[in-house]
Design goal:
By secondary structure, the chain is α/β, with parallel strands linked by helices. It has helices spanning 16-29, 51-61, 76-88, 104-114, 130-140, 159-167, 190-203, 226-229, 264-279, 286-295, 298-322, 359-369, 375-387, 413-431, and strands spanning 35-36, 99-102, 121-126, 146-150, 156-157, 172-178, 206-210, 235-240, 253-258, 328-329, 338-343, 389-390, 392-393, 403-407. The chain folds into 2 domains: 8-47 and 301-431, Aspartate Aminotransferase, domain 1 (Alpha-Beta Complex), CATH 3.90.1150; 51-298, Type I PLP-dependent aspartate aminotransferase-like (Major domain) (Aspartate Aminotransferase, domain 2), CATH 3.40.640.10. The strands form 3 sheets. An 8-stranded mixed beta sheet has the order 2-9-8-7-6-3-4-5, sandwiched between helices. Helix 2 packs across helix 10 (286-295), helix 6 runs parallel beside helix 7 and helix 12 packs antiparallel against helix 13.
Length: 434
Amino acid sequence: MRQQLLTEGAKELSYEIREIVKKAEQIQALGQPIMWENIGDPIQKNHVLPQWIRQVIADLCLQNDVYSYCPSKGIVATREFLATQTNARGGVQITAEDICFFNGLGDAIAKVYQYISPTSRVIGPSPAYSTHSSAEAAHASHEPITYRLDPDNKWYPDLDDLYNKVKYNPNVVGILIINPDNPTGMVYPLDTLKRIVSIAREFGLFLICDEIYLNITYNGARAYSLAEVIEDVPGIAMKGISKELPWPGGRCGWMEYYNRQRDQHFNAFCHALDNAKMIEVCSTKLPQMAIPKILGDSRFTSYRQEMNTKIGKRSKLVAELFSSIPHVRFNETFGAFYNTIIFRKGVLKPNQTLKIANEKIKSRVEEWCSQDLPLDKRFVYYLLGAKGVCVVPISSFCSELQGFRVTLLEENDDLLQSSFTAIREGILEYVHSR
């Protein structure tokens, strides 16, 4: 090429949640069945949507107008429905004009960081969700700036760490919250959210809150939306149907803009996001048309509550299996459908292994582990080869901690039990190996 093609930020793009699949598929091809604990897809984990929801979508497919374009910001009636839902929570009030649809939150996240000045930064939580941290790092051509989630304090944010990093990094223009959190399953306490709002107000920042799991809480927890706590601070809430409905293949997410008129620079930023979608004409129409019909149906609330209860029971099962292991730091989860398990300092060593009977698989894993790897990734590869369980190393979530993330989605009870029993056995065998 006569000129360099890639930007410097391109090297920051990574997504271990999918990357680990490449390794798992190699192991699978060598004869090891795989239990997939890498990605939060309820459908892949044996969830079956209720017939009435599928019927709503099927009926919409018979309407001729579902195949046309829709307004660039999204179907007006759907945006009005969503604005009413947000306003019913209390706090800041919005209209349909404060909502813009995207092709899933991945599209929305990419747009947000694309149109922030390259010298400006958004600080986010660590362990970090890869889509946010990679997109933010790529836009700035530099590694992400993060605030610490504390595994010794229920994964709650270290607010002193956040405050000092904002104070001494003048390029920080925004704070990212993921509530409930991915990958930890932590739900932000109300007082913590209020403190983060006050930090944003003090330093003239805007807030981004990824709320894709907002309505997935259990075991007595309640997640507060950004709209309820933001007061007069500018902010963006990111929402969607991929996890809650769930319809991950629908690729349907939206942003809600809060207090956009209070700051001219933030207002211009929101206009740029709207214009970016206008250039693409619009987002996918079918799921937009389905949202009011499904989320507005009285059956949906009971359906979602039932699903949340089941996730809560699975979280209790995971707690029973892992909370007594002395080699890990374990926190019970209350939101989303993940758990992040951290090895205690010094537990992982570079000479540890698991027994692998299949010589071809053993050779492949040893080949991977002969490279300079984070120690938790080394454990993940051995777990994959020996036990056939695919998890994601936590070092891939922009974290110095060593551990792994699992999901709480498996609806086949036998598979659920066998998966997590295999992980537990894998931990105990690995840390005691020589």
